[in-house]
Amino acid sequence: SQRELILAFESSCDETSVAVVQDGTQILSNIIATQIHSHQRFGGVVPEVASRHHVEQITECTDLALQEAGVTYADLTAVAVTYGPGLVGSLLIGVTAAKTLAFAHGLPLIPVNHMAGHIYAARFVAPLTYPLLALVVSGGHTELVVMRAAGEYEIIGDTRDDAAGEAYDKIGRVLGVPYPAGKTVDEMAHAGHDTFDFPRAMHDSDDLDFSFSGLKSAFINTVHHADQIGETLDRNDLAASFQAAVIDQLVGKTLIALRQHPVAQLVLAGGVAANRGLKAALEAALAREFPETTLLVPPVRLTGDNAAMIGAAAHIELAHQHFADATLNAVPGLNF
Ligand code: KG4
Ligand code: ZN
Fold first, then answer.
1. Are residues 33 and 146 in the same domain?
2. Which residues bind Fe cation (predicted)?
3. In Å, how far are 77, 94, 122, 239, 275 from 267, measured between CA atoms?
């Protein structure tokens, strides 16, 4: 057929997702089975549990994705899959499913980097123009990425310790917020005020690296100290103060990056891109300092892990004929 149809798989962490994406721009289906409830009582993702869930979910998600898109294997152009970074046991389920289906149906297999997927979620908002800068903020990563062309990635800033989402999840635990805490802490922050003046890490340095462990420690110490002297702190104000410090750092470093790499598009991607305060702060900063730069943020249902974004990134890899064979393996520490 004339349509380019990619069946995409994503299973790098705790979401099993299968999508059908047309021409890299149109989502025909995007099935997402989340396992959050199974991990919540442990306060984080348990790799063994995650892997088992992926095995149980992936066949049904695949059937649903094809059904909802109204296509069969005979209509497909290629099969794409996240092969890293992520949890090895989780990645392997998607990789094995994709390999098996690709070879059973004689379809090319496209390996996709999960972080590239997060960036290409923005393709569903508008065509991407290069060079672009991406701020990718998730539970596992916090990176500034320059793309000089489609499918070309250069990391110019990275976290030295925790990822931004990870910091949200860790301080969320101290506040008694269930995993993953980001969304709830974001809501609490909007109901509170920045009264605690938490440290703004590396604010003066001109490099582009992030650090959240100092902020996390300051937060935990503040709460523990109050506990010890029997003082009750306002949880919303704590959340607001934490969020203000995170946003200050993310926006500050992004502005330094933009001064070094002027671009027409800034992509905000990854699970933390759902943060309303972050989006608003970036928009305001761009309006002030880089009015020529447009902020692209995927809709909330595409900022978290999903297979549609993998299909969008795979479209670029397909154009470059970047295929894998049956030896494709999961690469948990995959970099660009
Ligand atoms: O990209 P993602 O779904 O998974 C990874 O690849 O890690 O990101 C999940 C992370 C979690 O740490 C979650 O707490 C955070 O994104 N998150 C948020 C918000 N929504 C999700 N963090 C801050 N504000 C939010 N609204
Ligand atoms: Zn992710």
1. no
2. 114, 118, 305
3. 28, 26, 7, 25, 14
Ligand 1: which of 87, 159, 168, 170 to mutate, judged by most atoms within 8 Å of the beta carbon? 168
Domain that holds residue 191: 129-297
**For the residues of 87-98, what is the DSSP string, one character each?**
-HHHHHHHHHHH
Do the domain assignments include residue 326?
A: no
Q: Whose CA is nearest to atom 22 of ligand 1?
A: 182
- Region 111-117 average pLDDT: 98
**For residue 149, what is the domain's CATH number?**
3.30.420.40
Ligand 1 lining (C-beta closer than 6 Å): 13, 138-140, 165-166, 168-169, 180-183, 186, 270-272, 274-275, 304-305
Q: Closest-lying ligand to the alpha carbon of 186?
A: 1
List of residues 6+ apart from 40 with CB closer than 8 A: 178, 179
Do the domain assignments include residue 65? yes
Decide if 233 is inside a domain: yes
Residues 85 and 135 placed together within one structural domain of the fold: no
pLDDT(214) > 70: yes
* pLDDT score recorded for residue 124: 98
Is there a contact between 163 and 246 (Cβ–Cβ < 8 Å)? no
Cα 258 to middle of ligand 1, angstroms = 24
Same domain membership, residue 278 and residue 145: yes
Condensed to tens digits (0 to 9), the pLDDT of residues 163-198 reads 999 999 999 999 999 999 999 999 999 999 999 999
Q: How confident is the model at residue 39 (pLDDT cuts 50, 70, 90)?
A: confident
ipTM over 0.90: yes
Number of domains in the chain: 2
Q: Ligand 1: which atom is nearest the Cα of residue 181?
A: 14
Which atom of ligand 1 approaches the CA of 140 most closely? 7
Check if the beta carbon of residue 28 is closer than 8 Å to that of residue 68: yes
